[in-house]
């Protein structure tokens, strides 16, 4: 199956405050905030912010009360204390560690990112429409601790906000290379939320969770879906995995809103992981989730950023395509990157910028009803294991089409 573009013009609110770049763990840390600045400058250089259906807006930081809808009061106090005195950060709370070094703006910047995702959830529910927060997607943070470069879990906060606004069912789909463990933990036993994570195998990558056998708590059987993929999975296998699981599950669950996390660290050039996915396949995944939001979630779609550590070559282009897709104004992959943006990349990173909005691939994959199951293929083995673990819990046939 060749990739197709989902061309529906949609109103989209792009949440952005330059101060979100204050989420900065310091020199040498992989989570370099320049990736956010370069993303939004590419969005603007391509004129996406000037489209009539696009609004770029900023929201205030999440309040203490809002943060407590997911996080424990004692953890919030620990984050504030770490910001006030980074040298005394509570490592038992995941603060002041190599992954999450404490810094003076830790609470303020984290709360600001969370505030953008909360406002995005408000906009999506009121719309219905789409919203994007490229600084969001901090999916590893737990109710009582930081983890994996994530302090406050804006993704879980956004899902909780949608429930509080009246949604009876919310689906969360995470295509970051790392397991969306924090969001899964928050909603593990909540039948109103379906979490789906497609990620590299926990046998080879942080956080070591996300096995196919993790399927939800006793009150929410099948509420957690995990598809761990073998290292080396490329475009064909990655897109086959997503398209073989996400559409039938969303059709069965019938969510009233879709929240998706689009970590760009599945990319072949990402330094922290081992999948071999192209920018072009990431764009296809965004188009698929856009279409599914219209088919199964009433058009309510909130798209978040996430991981991604090839800060100039990959992240800005991947998330600019995400913004364009949400607006129904897909950027032609052959489009040259604007000269002024390439100059900004050189100025901020001392790296040469990519010249086009593509890696030069044309992704295609076999749908499950074309050729069936290949028992020798490790990706097919992973897909079938996940389908067997959760499909029957949703009234679906794990072997349908195979």
UniProtKB/TrEMBL annotation:
Transmembrane segments: none annotated. One of its GO terms (biological process) is epigenetic regulation of gene expression. Pathway: Ketone degradation; acetoin degradation. InterPro entries: AcuC (IPR003085), HDACs (IPR000286), His_deacetylse_dom (IPR023801), His_deacetylse_dom_sf (IPR037138), Ureohydrolase_dom_sf (IPR023696). Keywords: Acetoin catabolism. One of its GO terms (molecular function) is histone deacetylase activity. Residues 29-324 form the Histone deacetylase domain. Gene3D superfamilies: Histone deacetylase domain. PANTHER family: HISTONE DEACETYLASE HDAC1, HISTONE DEACETYLASE HDAC1-RELATED. Belongs to the histone deacetylase family. This is Acetoin utilization protein AcuC.
């Amino acid at each position: 199956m060749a990739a197709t573009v989902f061309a529906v013009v949609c109103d989209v609110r792009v949440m952005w405050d330059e101060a979100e770049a204050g989420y900065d763990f310091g020199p040498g840390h992989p989570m370099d905030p320049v990736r956010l600045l370069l993303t939004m400058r590419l969005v603007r250089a391509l004129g996406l912010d000037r489209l009539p259906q696009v609004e770029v807006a900023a929201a205030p930081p999440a309040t203490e009360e809002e943060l407590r809808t997911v996080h424990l009061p004692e953890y919030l106090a620990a984050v504030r204390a770490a910001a006030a005195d980074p040298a005394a950060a509570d490592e038992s709370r995941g603060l002041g560690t190599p992954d999450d070094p404490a810094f003076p703006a830790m609470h303020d910047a984290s709360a600001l990112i969370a505030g953008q995702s909360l406002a995005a959830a408000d906009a999506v529910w009121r719309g219905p429409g789409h919203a994007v927060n490229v600084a969001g997607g901090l999916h590893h943070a737990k109710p009582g601790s930081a983890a994996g470069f994530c302090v406050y879990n804006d993704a879980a906060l956004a899902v909780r906000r949608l429930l509080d606004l009246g949604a009876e069912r919310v689906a969360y789909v995470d295509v970051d290379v790392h397991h969306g463990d924090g969001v899964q933990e928050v909603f593990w036993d909540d039948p109103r939320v379906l979490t789906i994570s497609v990620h590299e195998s926990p046998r080879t990558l942080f956080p070591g969770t996300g096995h196919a056998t993790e399927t939800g708590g006793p009150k929410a059987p099948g509420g957690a879906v995990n598809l761990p993929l073998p290292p080396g999975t490329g475009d064909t296998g990655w897109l086959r995995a997503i398209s073989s699981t996400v559409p039938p599950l969303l059709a069965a669950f019938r969510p009233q809103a879709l929240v998706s996390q689009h970590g760009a660290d599945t990319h072949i050039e990402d330094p922290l992981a081992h999948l071999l996915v192209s920018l072009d396949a990431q764009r296809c995944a965004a188009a698929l989730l856009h279409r599914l939001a219209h088919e199964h979630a009433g058009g309510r779609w909130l798209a978040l950023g996430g991981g991604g550590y090839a800060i100039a070559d990959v992240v800005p282009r991947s998330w600019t395509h995400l913004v364009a897709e949400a607006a129904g104004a897909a950027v032609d992959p052959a489009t040259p990157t604007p000269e002024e943006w390439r100059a900004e990349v050189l100025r901020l990173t001392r790296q040469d910028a990519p010249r086009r909005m593509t890696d030069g691939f044309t992704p295609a994959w076999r749908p499950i009803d074309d050729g069936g199951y290949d028992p020798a293929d490790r990706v097919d083995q992973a897909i079938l294991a996940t389908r067997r673990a959760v499909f029957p819990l949703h009234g679906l046939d794990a072997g349908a089409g195979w």
